[in-house]
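Recall from the previous lesson that a structure prediction takes nothing but the amino acid sequence as input. Here we apply that procedure to OmpW family protein from Faecalibacter macacae. The sequence below is the only information supplied.
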Amino acid sequence: MKKYLILATLLGSVVTFAQNAGELHMRVRATGVVPMENATVGAIGGNVEVTNNLIPEVDFTYYFTKNVAAELILGTSKHEVVATNTSLGNIDLGRVMLLPPTLNLQYHFYPTQKLKPYVGLSANYTIFYDQGQGKGRHAAVTDVDYENAFGYGFQLGFDYKITDKMYWNVDVKKLYMDTDVAVGTTLGVEVPAAVDLNPWLISTGIGFKLF
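The prediction returns the following tokens.
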């Protein structure tokens, strides 16, 4: 429930602000989430592997000027996590759900009447939930706790005009995010890990000018 309240609050804030001035655009996209993971695992050593995922994503862009805009991205993704090459072999840690609201400050260019490329800088706060769930979790693992964390990144993309109020969008983001993980075991020993996720977010979809 908490994650839905966060999404509703963010969405309400964007719409309320945009109704007072400027333009508000919305995009509906398919986004591939591709983690480039690396980890330092405590006493048992090893690394981690995190699965890719394809998710639906909604974003809202508010234009302060013709060139400068802020984009808020809303989406959630599911990933399976395995600790690999540890002293105990490979250990399935189950799944984890990520809710990473991301805010991008963008600069838009207008080289032609239809093509509008842009660049952006990203800031996000990643919330982890349903941690360590799933049937695949190793029997020796009692629980997995991921610490929520801030991240940053960059963005490249373009909009291609279809009509005055509709356009095709392609977007690529690179986020740098890390988290501290604590893995509880049936031995009563908690194994810590520092995990860098650093995902690529590769998106395409349709955008609309709302007002």
